[in-house]
Amino acid sequence: MSEAMELSAAEIARRVNAGEVSAREVTDAALAQIDAVDDRLGAYLTRLHDLARVSAGRVDARIKAGEHLPLAGVPVAVKDNMCLAGTRTTCGSKMLEGWVAPYTATAVARLLDAGAVPVGKANMDEFAMGSSCENSALGKTCNPYDLGRVPGGSSGGSAAAVAAYEAAIGMGSDTGGSIREPAAFCNLVGFKPTYGRVSRYGLIAFASSLDQIGPLARSVEDAALAYDVMAGKDPMDSTSVDRPVEPAATALRSDLRGVRVGIVKQFGTQGLGPEIDSLYRRAYLDLEKLGATLVDVELPTAEYGLATYYLIAPAECSSNLARFDGVRYGLRVDGEDVGRMYERTRAEGFGPEVKRRILIGTYALSSGYYDAYYVKAQKARTMFGADFKRAFERCDLIASPAASSPAFAFDAKSDPYSMYMMDYYTIPISLAGLPALSVPCGYVLPEGSSRPMPMGLQLAAPLFGEAQLLAAANAYECATQHARQRRPEGAL
Amino acid sequence: MSSDNIDIRYVAKLARIELTDDEVERFGRQLGDLLEHVKTLHDLDTAAVPATAQVVESRNVARADAVGRCLEHETVMQMAPQRQGAFFRVPRIISEES
Amino acid sequence: MTQYEAVIGIECHVELKTKSKMFCACPNRFGGEPNAHVCPVCLALPGALPVANEEAILQVIRAGLAFGAEIPAFSKFDRKNYFYPDMPKDYQISQYDMPLAQGGVVRYWLDDGTTKECRLTRIHLEEDTGKSTHAGSGDGRIAHSSYSLVDFNRAGVPLMECVSEPDIRSAEEAVGFLDALKRTFVQLGVSDVKMEEGSLRCDANVSIRPVGSKDLGTKAEIKNMNSFRSVSRAIESEIARQIAVVAAGGRVVQETRGWDELAGTTHSMRSKEEAHDYRYFPDPDLVPIEVDRTVVERLRSLMADLPIARFERYRGSYGLGVAQATQLVDTPQLAEYFDSCVGAGGGGQQAANFVLGDLSRLANETQTPVWESSVAPQDLAELIGLVQSKTINSKIAKDLLLRMWNGGGSPKALVEHEGLAQTSDPGSVERFVDEVLAAHPKVVADYKAGKTNVMGFLVGQVMKQSRGKANPALAGELLAQKLG
Fold first, then answer.
1. B93/A337 CB distance under 8 A
2. Per-residue pLDDT tens for A459-470?
3. Residue C432's domain spans which residues?
């Protein structure tokens, strides 16, 4: 592997801007790494050799012309639910297997405009529904730390690509934990900004009121760099927030003095086994050592998180995914009339998890059940917001596990509900729209395995507290350096 | 809100997804299980709680009435699973909803 | 025998006249190459998001204010979920429980001049669908087609839905109601309201009940009416059908019925196979609308003289006939022209006669609208003043009007410059009278023999002799004296 691929995004950008290396050279190194490892790993659904080289050429020309680009030459993996004009954009579904997007998502465009180079479209759980990447209809992605295990999901391809040095930044999307959980599984920083901070225009919708784009990176600094570029109001997304973005990459901290970190009573770790429990206790102590004050806070609604989420997200998805009907684009399976055509197309085009969620969402919105399910969940959602607001009166950040276990083996979670439980810690935060990230916090040895697997510490902040959140995560990361202790040997 | 009587075939019809008998049985059971869990929400007293549709309370986001660019006609038509000239073609429509 | 009355409610969809579509920047334009005015948003490509058109929202508020509707402080968009090939997202962005306008009353008039009222339930904003053409059958009808062709140019055009209360009692009233909507929307500039082009589409809910009953009967929803005339015919035919059903001991069933223009009857439409469950929920891609009270007040204050107010003023203050008043109101620019003329002193009835008579004829002949002609309304008022003061007679007035149309200018100046003022001086008129009597001894003899109807001829000769300037009344008087 070329040394360049182990560089951070910040360092790549610095060198390209300084003319020490060209974007084209970095890109070639990234493409070589992809070609070397990805047949085994399966992080990408589409490798973008040609587009990457053309983009790199453009970046080099802009650098030559005297421009300074914050992500100059940084290879990025784009999750395959984000449109990139001229590239196949599949959402991990047979429904869109051959669909070429004719336009580019705002967040992707902002990253590319800042000098990033798209090297591939990354695998994902179909329509971002899943926590293991196993729901992709188009490919299997392995965890670079153990090829027998899942990379997490739904942004599993982006996570695997960044962990295996096939990109420096991964673009992910998070609805109930889809950035944070794969980041935890792949020893990365995965950051979900406040809902509305990053434009969703061009992000293929799963649940509109929860979906949020964010970066996966090998360091907090890189995540902050990417966030600074993609955040901000977009006139094409009515729900994107019109509020100045506080730059995060230049405000990173090395200590936590004066920061009150809330430990949520309902997010206890005793139930996760002694090894995991002690790992998180140590992580909280590390926060304290950096100067933070730990305070106990309550989140009385926490146990209703999954119930609330599994009404709201499917309800929205049942409507969002109606457009996949075989009329204008994507898969069509013919039928003798248009109704049969719809039913066959959707039966063939959607995988079982997507069907389950469409069905549950359709049911939750249907006449007679709307108030009992959907409205009830919307009200519960209000309570989540209020609970967090109350908690944040006593603390500045909340710390918890990012996932309830390390990456599990393929086919280990055959029952949908046990898969849903993976997101126990991330979902309440998503329901409240809060910014949160996962930062590596050590390793545990899964049962019956000799390979230690990474774990993630979730930190969450009040709405729009991105800069403070990233600053604190940087302090923890610099002091602990967990990610550096192991390399993704499985992939290298 | 009883979950045992979820009419999975009716819901699938609304969602326009053809299900096999096996899927009807499997999804019916799985959705029943999920709804059992979802029912715990009823323990939550939400009588005085307003519903949240969006966490960030923006209002009046609108655009000025100005014309912008359309997609190229050929770009559009190349996506079509079936086209006839400048039109998208679909099998016959039997529902008269419009 | 029981007498029945009809109870009718109207639902109509009006395409708004904005520059761009409801939720994207594609042009809102009728016709054109199929699938040429589409973008990721209105084609519902994966990932595309809607952003509401501010002008469309304001137009609906103005439409509501025109009928005295309440404009709630809070409004939102909802998704109406159902599958149809010409609806790209397979849900329609509409408004469910919080429309932009609620209530209001449409006042309208009938051909005999009586005015009526119909309450509005609500007006809300939504998006139009694309258009399907049913092919593979000879007759273009859906039931016989083997496939359909879809054009999405219309998809996403802003559509205003107006729903009335069941206050309408006849086909004539239904047309009166629709006419009132049309006039009002045209005047507000929010729509072209052309049924033939599809910018106005309407359905009617029709039921019957025994006269005197307060209960509502079972209604049928009538669709496929594509002109005001077909609305009228369809409703009449449906009322007759329902009365016949009941008279024969049957019961009206709740259903959707299509109007068949050729057959002149409504027919039961295949009841939909699919269950109706639209699963409305607030659209999470759009944010709520809070309508600022100051905006509402500003829009209300800008509300021009609305058609019904005009109509009543024209009838009440100027005594215009129903036809004349309607004709003026139907063309807002013409009504404004008329108002300016009356405001400048041109008396109501005379102004209406000129505007709808000579001026409209000239407008037709020259393909120039009256309000764009060189006859300023003030000049017309001046002309009317000259006639009223008997400075000129009506024949001269017509000649002058033609000259004003062709070259413009003040009629007073023309009269003075060309000496066209009517002569009411008895001395000079008497001279013309004497000349005429001398030139027509035979006619004089006839008159004296009792043929008094030759008087008209003699007056005409005096007018001719005076080149139109003699006061015809004075001429008649003098002739009578001399012959008497």
1. yes
2. 999 999 999 999
3. 426-483
